[in-house]
Design goal:
Elements: E1 7-11, H1 19-26, E2 32-34, H2 44-53, E3 60-65, H3 67-78, E4 83-89, H4 100-119, H5 121-128, H6 141-151, H7 155-166, H8 172-175, E5 182-187, H9 195-204, E6 208-213, H10 220-223, H11 225-236
Parallel strand pairs: 1-2, 1-3, 3-4, 4-5, 5-6
Length: about 250
């Protein structure tokens, strides 16, 4: 009798698709890796509902990168009994700040959207993605793959996802209630979601382990797939909570 593989839901970030997770997923063949698509969904809550509605299994492991990490936390808020393991990569947990910081974020995102509508998604990506990777990755085939991924999206999808991020819920109060084995991972050179934020986040979670990926920016699952997969292997090997049945155990 064969044992079914544990579903591992890999939630993508802003303007990301399965390619963002592909290299890491290929190194985790013993898990049933799945990457949802956000389509025109424009709130973090709607994205979380989509994840739950599209997953028939009662239990699954959950990993979210960047915006996907915020969606993962919202999935846990809605259905903690279904999540065996949680991984949060290069992400955040706080709502949009108030005052000048909020206006700076709104205007920055609006400028990128305007460029996408006027010059095309790839031209916008040339500006945006430069700050999303380790400096050594700029101009490499990996950087081109990121631009290709951005170009596969439409400005209307970009607008929907910006709307979701600007309206993101605050998960601060949730962190202390997450008791499943948790991985908090960040690229050392991530300037978009810096390491200091992940150190605080891991410290607020009772069963979290912090992993720092060296020589990586924000796109760690693409930039350092082997290091990310190694950290995820160790995370997925951690014992399940007694809440979950033996049927949810990894193969």
């Amino acid at each position: 009798m064969t044992t079914e593989r544990l579903p591992l839901l890999m939630l993508p970030g802003l303007l990301c698709d399965p390619v963002a997770w592909a290299a890491t997923a290929a190194l985790l063949p013993q898990y049933d890796c799945r990457v949802p698509a956000w389509g025109a969904l424009d709130t973090i809550g709607a994205m979380a509902d989509h994840v739950l509605a599209s997953t028939s299994e009662p239990h699954f492991a959950l990993a979210g990168h960047s915006m996907g990490g915020r969606v993962a936390l919202e999935v846990v808020r809605r259905a903690p009994q279904r999540v065996t393991h949680l991984a949060l990569l290069d992400t955040g947990y706080q709502a949009l700040p108030e005052g000048e910081a909020a206006e700076k974020e709104r205007s920055g995102r609006a400028a990128l959207l305007a460029r996408a509508r006027e010059a095309g998604m790839r031209a916008m990506g040339q500006v945006w993605a430069t700050g999303m990777v380790h400096p050594d990755q700029i101009g490499t085939p990996l950087f081109d793959a990121i631009l290709d991924m951005i170009e596969r999206s439409h400005p209307d999808q970009f607008a929907a996802q910006i709307h979701a991020l600007l309206g993101r819920p605050d998960a601060t109060s949730l962190l202390g209630e997450v008791h499943c084995p948790t991985l908090v991972l960040c690229g050392r050179q991530d300037t978009w979601s810096p390491l200091a934020r992940h150190e605080v986040m891991a410290g607020l979670m009772p069963n979290a382990v912090l992993s720092v990926v060296e020589d990586s920016g924000h796109m760690s699952p693409m930039e350092r797939a082997q290091d990310v997969a190694d950290a995820m292997q160790a995370w997925l090997a951690r014992p399940l909570s007694p809440t979950f049945s033996s049927q949810a155990r990894p193969a």
